Amino acid sequence: MLVIPALSDKFAPEDEELKCTHDDIEHPEPEFADIEEDYNPEGNDHEGRTLASYSNLRTYGYYGLLNSAPSSYKSYMQRELIPPILDFYRAALKVKYPSTSAIRTSSSRICGITTPSVLKSGVANTDYVLMVDHAYDSSKAWVAECVVCLQATGTNRPIVAKAKVNRWKLKATNDVLLHEKNMLCIMHEITHSLGLTNTLFKYFLSSTTGKRLTGHITTGSLNGATQTVLAIEPVRSKLRNHYGCSSLRGLYIENGGGAGTAGSHPERRHFGFDFMTSGLVYQMQVTDMTLSFLESTGWYVPNYSYGEKFAWGKNQGCQFLTGSCAASSFDYNNFCSGSTRGCAHPGRGGGVCTTDRLTGSCRFVHPNVNYDCDNSNADNYARLPSAETYGRGKNSKCFVGTLSSTSSSAASTSFCFKYTCSGSQLTVHVGSKSAVCTREGKISVPGYKGTINCPNPASWCATVGTKNCLRGCMGRGTCNNGKCQCRSGYKGIDCGLSSSF
Q1: Which of 167, 174, 460, 482 is 20 to 30 Å from 151 by CA-CA measure?
Q2: The Cα angle at residue 308 between residues 317 and 188, in degrees rounded to 5
Q3: Looking at the predicted structure, is the pLDDT value of residue 336 above 90?
Q4: Which string of b and e fits 157-169 if b means at least 16 CB within 10 Å?
Q5: Among residues 363, 359, 356, 269, which one has the least CA distance to residue 321?
Q6: Which phi and psi angles does 204 have, rounded to 5°?
Q7: Helix, coil or strand: residue 174
Q8: Mind listing the domains of the chain with CATH numbers?
Q9: At what angle do helices 288-296 and 176-194 cross, to 10 degrees?
Q10: pTM, whole model, 2 decimals?
C-alpha cells in the first residue's frame, strides 16, 4: 500500500515553485534538419480535413544520457515518469505535417552534448524525439528544463528536444501525489519545447492556411506595463468566448518573474492554475486552453477531451483581466482577501490566501498538501476528520465554512466533503448528515454548529464539481462516466502509473 506523507520536505512550500531555465541558461541555437515532411508550403492542402484524418504525434524517448545516474533513478525516469507523459502527447496531439523520413543529424554535437548515435543513424516513424538528461545541483536554482535542439526546415516544427532534470530537486518516488507533481513539471517543460517558448513564436504557421504567420507577435498594456501578446487563432477566440471579453487582443505572455519566467509563459493573472503558468505546480491543471495554444502554432491538432475544463475567470468579462481583483468582484473564488484558509481554485483542497509574485497585488488561495482532499493523511489536519473524506479517488471536494461539533464561533477553514450535483442543486455530505445548496450563501448542517459557504450550485457543478478523467487517462485507458478504465499494465485515477508502481 502506498502511503502519502501528510507533511515532509518533499512538499515544503518552497518546493512548490518551478524554476524554468530555458530562457536564462545559454544553449547553442537549435539546428535545422532537412527532413522530409508531408507539407505544402503553398498552404490549403489540409482545408476541410477532419481530426481523424491527421496522424497522432509519434514520439520517441531516448534515455542513454541517464546511464550515469543512479540505476534506481534511471529506472524511475525510464519506466515510470517519462512514458505516461509521452503517451499523453501521442494521444492528445495530432501532427498536421508529419515527418516522412527519419529524424537525423550529421552534427557531432547537439544541444551541448555529443550527438547520440541513434540520431546519427536516424529515428524512423517519429515526429518528436525527447532526449532525457540529468544533473545533481544542490543550488536549488532549478528543477527541470527542456530546450529545442532540432527544427524541421520545412515547417520549422521542433522535432528534437532535450529535457534535463535536477535530481536534487526532482526525486524518484513511490508517493502518488509527488509522482503527479513530477509528471506535471516535466509536461510543463515538454510543452515549452513543443511551441510555448519565445524562440519559437516567430516560426508559427497559420492554423487555417498552413503558411508562415506574420504580424502575430504584438503588444498590449496590462496594469500599466507593456506585454507581449500573441494574436493567434484559435486560442484568441476561445479566450474571448471564455472570459466574455470580445476586445481581448490575444494571449498575454508573462512579463514578471525575471529571466526564465518572463517571455515564455501565459500571463498568470489570466491563466490561474493552468500548468503552463510559471511557479506553482501543485494541483495545476492541463487545460483545454493550453491545448488551444498548441493548435494555434499551426503544427498540431489537439483532441480537447484530454484537457481539463478551464474555469478560471469564466464569463467574468474584461474587468477580470485588467481590473481590480477584489475577492467580492468575481465568481468561483478566483481571488481572495486577507490571509485566511480557503479552497484553492481547482477545488481539490485547501490552502492559505496569499499574494503571488506574478499577479501583483492580487491574492489567491495557494494549495497546501496538508489540506488536499486527495491526501489520505490530511485528516491529521482536519477539524472534523470523522465527517470528512480524504484519499485519492474518493471523490471529495473542498468547501469553506465554520462548521464545528463544539463551537459556534469557530474560525473559517477548509473541509473535504463528498457531494452530489443534480441540476441546479448541490448536496454536501458531512458524514451521515447533508446540506442542500440551492443558491450561493451560508447554510447550516444538522448536528453541527456554524455553517458551510455554498458556492453558486449551477456554476460550481458545471466546473469544479464536474466528474472528469484527469488528462484523458494519459492515453492509457478510456473515460467512462468520469472514471478512467485503464488498459492492462496501468493503474491510477489517470492511468499514469504502471501496475508495478
Answers
A1: 167
A2: 100
A3: no
A4: bbbbbbbbbbbeb
A5: 269
A6: -60, 150
A7: coil
A8: 9-203 (3.10.170.20), 217-306 (3.90.132.10), 325-462 (no CATH), 468-501 (2.10.25)
A9: 20
A10: 0.92
